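STRUCTURE:
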């Protein structure tokens, strides 16, 4: 809360008294303590205010000073008013324009389409028909301008294809671990929820501390539950090993089944068909079982030794060759 007041604050209070205006800062849910609205290297203070008339003051539901961001030194002010206005809208009244696929290379074409003679004439007609004193034509003007943009986009851009996958299809839930309890499961959901909130508000120190404490508590509880589960399981196996072998192996098989990975959703034949389509091969590749060997391949090592080769090998033997049949054979094979 900013407790210091300068001359600008005094003038603002005097202005509110003279004009019977009301300050929302520090008076509503979301800013009951009067948070600072300006942060810089010199300090922090409350310099951004929201004023209302006395009649509108009682229609305010809550007033919030958002957390500071890196883009500006000033915080965003958010206010919500009480309203009972309801507008009935049917699906038939909503036009399904679709989504366009934007490409940077088409920016010049889109600009030219907006400057086309037809689009310019439509814009000029709207400008001539604007009535400053009549507020009932706002919806008509907005829809007409939107139609001009959509027509220009339909001439230059490509519509995105609608996905055949149902939008509200829920993902298949993973099976709960054998060691996990309901309290641990709820704690895991809380950790994930805090993590998503922290991604949107990274500068919130209190939220970061809460997330860190929750993660530590979750990891500690998960570790203790795992240890207790396996301790109980091992003691159960020790008691069943010699008494009831059937229950013993049944417990082991149940534990193994819980750790099995899901099989591949694609079969071998589907993989074969996939790579055939990549290679554009419609016909099957049939290789012969027996391939003919080349008759011109003459390798000297594929034939037995001749007498002349043995004699030449003996003459090349060195005099210091060790005695013994095995040593002589090795030396002979080396020289041959």
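SEQUENCE:
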């Amino acid at each position: 809360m900013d407790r210091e007041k300068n001359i600008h604050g005094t003038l603002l209070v005097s202005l509110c008294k003279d004009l019977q205006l009301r300050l929302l800062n520090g008076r509503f849910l979301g800013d009951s303590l009067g948070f600072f609205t300006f942060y810089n290297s010199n300090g922090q203070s409350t310099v951004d205010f929201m004023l209302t008339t006395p009649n509108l003051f009682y229609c305010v539901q809550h007033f919030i000073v958002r957390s500071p961001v890196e883009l500006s030194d000033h915080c965003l002010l958010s206010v919500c008013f009480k309203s009972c206005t309801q507008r009935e809208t049917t699906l038939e009244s909503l036009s399904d324009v679709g989504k366009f696929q934007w490409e940077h290379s088409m920016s010049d074409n889109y600009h030219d389409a907006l400057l086309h003679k037809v689009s310019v004439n439509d814009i000029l007609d709207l400008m001539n028909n604007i009535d400053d004193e009549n507020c009932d034509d706002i919806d008509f003007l907005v829809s007409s301008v939107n139609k001009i943009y959509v027509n220009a986009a339909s001439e230059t851009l490509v519509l995105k294809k609608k996905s055949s996958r149902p939008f509200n299809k829920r993902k298949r839930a993973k099976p709960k671990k054998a060691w996990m309890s309901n309290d641990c499961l709820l704690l895991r959901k809380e950790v994930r929820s805090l993590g998503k909130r922290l991604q949107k508000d990274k500068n919130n120190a209190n939220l970061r501390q809460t997330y860190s404490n929750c993660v530590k508590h979750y990891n500690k509880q998960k570790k203790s539950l795992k240890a207790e589960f396996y301790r109980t399981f091992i003691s159960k196996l020790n008691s069943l090993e010699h008494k009831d072998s059937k229950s013993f192996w049944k417990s082991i098989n149940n534990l193994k089944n819980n750790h099995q990975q899901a099989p591949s959703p694609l079969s071998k034949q589907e993989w074969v068909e996939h790579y055939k389509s990549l290679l554009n091969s419609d016909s099957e590749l049939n290789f012969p079982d027996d391939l003919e060997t080349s008759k011109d391949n003459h390798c000297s090592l594929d034939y037995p030794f001749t007498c002349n080769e043995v004699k030449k090998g003996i003459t090349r033997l060195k005099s210091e060759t060790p005695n013994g049949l095995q040593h002589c054979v090795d030396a002979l094979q080396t020289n041959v």
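REMARK: The first helix runs from residue 7 to 19.
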